[in-house]
Every structure is written in C-alpha cells, then in structure tokens.
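Run folding on both entries below.
>entry_1
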Amino acid sequence: MRNGTRRMMLSWLRSLSIALLIAIIVRTFVFSSYVVQGESMLPTLQDGNLLIINKIGYKITDIRRFDVVVFHANQREDYVKRVIGLPGDTIAVKDNVLYVNEQPFEQPFFEHTEDIQSSQIFTDDFTLEGLTGERVVPEDALFVMGDNRMNSRDSRFFGFITTEEVVGKVNLRYWPMQQLDVHF
C-alpha cells in the first residue's frame, strides 16, 4: 500500500473514531431515545411513540410543573409521566379539578376537555395526604401522573419519585412522523 493511501485511511479511521466517541458521549450523557409502552399518557403520547429525552436539561434548569419526564420506576423499567407536584406542594383532585396548593389549576395538555367538563369522572377524587400520608410533596421528590388518569399507574399508586430517579425530560416525539412534536 502506498504511503498516501495509508495516511488517507488513517485519517478516515481517526475521523470515524472521533465521531463514534462523540456519539457515545452524547447518547450516554445528553440525549436518549425512549419508546412509549402502554396507554397511560393518552391522549398526549400513544403506545409505540418514539421520544427523545434530554438528560441534562433538567439538571441545568429546574423541573417544572407539567413537564413530561422519564424516570426509573424500578431496576428494569422506566416510566413516562407528567409532573404534577413539586417539593412543598399540596395536591388534590375534586370533581375532576386539579388543585395545587389549594388553587384550581388548568390542565392545558388535555385535548379532550369536553370529557373533563362533563359529568363523566376523569380523575377520581383524592388528596395527597389521603394517598401518601404526607401533607406536602417532600424535598427532592415529585408527584407524577399519567394523562390517561383512569388507566395509569402513577404516584397515586407507588408514591413520590425522587429527583434522582428522573432520567430526563421529554423534548421531542419523532415517531410516527405525522405526530412530530417538540412542545413538551
């Protein structure tokens, strides 16, 4: 092999190695892909949707109410849910109305608001204290719920999640393409 060809191949190999290293670093520390499994986030997310999770964004800025996050539910599974309660909050639902710190909160992420307005039960009544025994969301914890409230295993069942369990915030739904969405 000629010297010029060898140099060119080494240059290409070095470039590919650097690109692979950058891709591994970005995948490990910055962004990750997630597949929605189940119907607990309907109508916002559907079974099989593909998402991009921002792993560092929430470490730079605080997690906010109504952010959609992915977290470690146990050692084998990650869940995607919506943040409802932040540290220090009181949470309750009465007659399909969400109360945060005793103030009614609009839930603009619901596309089917006519269901919420009707006499149909969308979310069973509860208080945070009645579910967890705690009056407020503890420091470094979050209260999360699925958007499909009648068909979601969430903080009403397993309690608070810690901020350390959060993998990241959902930034993008990229599959199916006709449902491309960056407004999470």
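>entry_2
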Amino acid sequence: MTPAGVPPQTVPAETVLPETVLPESVLPETGRALLYRVAREQADSRIPALAVGVVRDGALVWTAGRGRVGDAPPTPSTQYRIGSITKTFVAVLVARLRDEGRLDFADPLDRHVPGTALGDRTIAQLLSHTSGLQAETEGPWWERTPGGPWSDLAAQLRPEALRHRAGRRHHYSNVGFAILGEVVARHRGRSWWESLRAEILDPLGMRRTTYLPEPPHASGFAVHPWADVLLPEPAHDAGAMAAAGQLWSTVADLGRWAAFVAGDTGDVLSADTLAELREPNIVEQGPRWVSGYGLGFQIQQRNGRTLVGHGGSMPGFLAQLWVDVDEAVGAVALANTTSGLGPVASDLIEILLQHEPRLPDEWTPLPSPPDGLLDLVGTWYWGPTGFILRARGRDELELTPIAHGTRASRFRRRPDGTWVGLDGYYAGETLRIVRGPDGRVSHLDLASFIFTRAPYDPSAPIPGGVAKEGWTGGGAAQSPNGTATPGTEPA
C-alpha cells in the first residue's frame, strides 16, 4: 500500500547508482580515528551492515561502511529505514504551513483536524511531545504490523488516549506525529509524503529518500542476544502512522539533511523558522537535563556540546542524525539491527572536532559603519549594573554584563530603526534608541528597563526617579522613607 495511491520513486534493481563523490576529505589521522570508532561499533554491537557519514560546512566529507549488504559493504547510496528521523521532515512541512499563514503553532488541533478528544491540544504541543497524548496506538504494535487508514486511527483518539495534562511533561507520542501528517494532508489536499517529496526532497536533491525501499537497500534483522545468527524483521507500510517513522534514506541524502539542520536550508525554510524548531521547548525529566525536544527535533547535551537532530528506530533498523550547529558539523549513522547501536554519530562529531577543530572565520572590517552605529556601542548601565553593547556586523548588537549576571542578549535591526531581541531574557523584546532634542543618544529603552551612559543618570527617565541628593558617602544614614540623611553617624 502506498499513500493516497501514489507509487514511490523506482530504481531498477539492475541500476548501479553512482558513488557519492566527496568534495573534500579529512586528514588521514582523523579518518583513521573515525574508522576505528565505526569498526568497533559494528564488531562489538554485531551489526550486519553499518553505514556512516560526517558532514562539515554543508558537505559530506567522510563516509564508511562496515559489514555486508548482500556481498558488498554498504555505501553512501545504500538505503536503510530511518524511523523517527521521519518526524523532522514532518515538522518542517508543518513549519512551512505556519510560515504561509495557514496555521499557527498555538492553534488547537480542532481548528485543523476537528472531532478528536484532543482538540484543545496545540500544534506546538504535538510537535514537542507535550500534548499528553498516549505514546502508541491501541492493538498490535504498529511498527510490526500493516497500517490502516486515518479513519481507524481517528477512532482511537478518545478521552482515554490522553495520559497527561497538556504541557505538563515530555511524553513521546508517535500517535501525535501521525496526527501532524494528517494536518499536512488536509491543508495540501494530498498525502504528507507527496508534499514532502515536492516541497523538500526534490528541491534539496534528496532523491534516494523514499516511502518504500528501493534497491540497493539493506534488509532489517534482529540479532540473537547469545548467538551470531539473524532473524529477518518485517517492513510494512505503516499507513496512517507513517508520518511517525516510515521513510527510507541513505547516508548521502541524510548528509544533505544534516546540512539543512545546520542551517543550509536553501529555499525550503527560513533560517529564523529553522532556529525556532531547534530551540528547546521541554526537557526530559531526570536528575539533570541531558536531553530535550524542540519542535520536531531532539536536543542533547553531550561532552559540553549541544547537538540537534533525531534518532530513529524501526524493527530491524536504527538510525542517528546529530548536528552541532555552532560548529557546522554533523554525523549520520544507519544500522540494520533492531537494537544495540551505541552513540556512534555523536562520537564521530567529537572525534572530528578533536582532531580538526574548526578555524575561526577570518575577521574583516566593515567597509563603513552604518549611520549612528558608533553612537550605540560601548558601556551602558542599568541602574548600577554595567553592560557592554557591541556591534556584530552591520545589523546585529550584542548586550552582555560586564561582571556577574545574566540577561545577555543579541538584537537584530528592524526596518523601523528599532531592534528585536534574538535570545536570552530579552528574546522578542524591543530595544529602542531614544535621542534627545540635539539628536544625541539619550538612553536605551529595553522592555521598560532604561540603560544610560552613567549609573542612574538623573537626566534620563529612570523608573521611580533618582534621589535628589545623588550618590553619597558610606556614612550617610537612611531615613525611614529611604532617602539619605546627611551628617548622621551610625550608632
């Protein structure tokens, strides 16, 4: 069964796909360290066929394959089932609908798919697994049995399908992403898969990412826990649940997707929307937070790095895609085994950065400073607390405390001359540059906080005013109303 009767792309079995040509490579000692990690994983975890790749600055720079698919090692063009990495594609489809104005992340589900018991749960809660919806479907495990139509799944969305109060906690829900696939289908008038192929895969050149497997592809196996023998696993069409984990892909295609996650979105999605999807919405409960979830993307803290991506698991297959956005480095690992894959993708990122740390971008001066920019930079004070305001290029400012404290934020210039906060305490807040009658900058107004060039500048509109006595020595006593009383010694 294929979605909405649409046949998948086909590659004749006798076709020999061209090997991926890497535009650059890693140093020999780096390649050796990467290969050792992959070889150890394949041998120790007893994986029939393990294929991996490393991405740097938007390009696949290193790949390896261990084990066998048929009589040969897997290549960057060998397909594997990628399980829940599918969810990242569905999330981008939903984000495109938001950017087109067809929905809002804060919309209740009823506005787009009416008639379920979770109609008050929002699109964002479904994307971040905070809707409280049950994890799996009723009946036989959907991952190992043929899937049914949307009507069958919708019939299960009764009040008892809700396990938690909306927004209370992270509770992973495959059913939630099946619903999001239906949201996409209803807005587009075609299956989520057809939309994915037209809106994302074709524009990005990901032609080996398909709904059903196409040769050459790996077969899925379970490995016996106590003997070196294999059991073939089923690979059904998941039907209405397909948006939770149906897709098949390759190291080469997922290398392109890792570059997308790192920021190379082409014309598929805006950089700001992608950044929104990658932001943590919820953390998984535990003694300390090491993993969380954005909107369709998993987030993990590992070795002092923040990695964004997703894992995938279907019977017979495990997949990993992780990206360090700050370093523009990512890794993909695909295995045809039901269980046992270690953190190989994140380890490959660590190995690459240890052996070949990223060189800082070369600094170059601006051809000319934008009008008024130099009037803004330098030292500012919120009350007695000092901050530095720095220019980052032509259209970005960075506000950081001089000493201890938080509330550091970056700001981007708007067309109207104001600045909007990008992160930190002031994310989304407006920074206004206030000038006096002479045109000089008087103060900064940031979300009702007044920043001045001197601590508590009496010429600025400091909230609550400034005591007329001004700054006094330590011997000044305080009157009951809080004003200084000069000449009074402490008892």
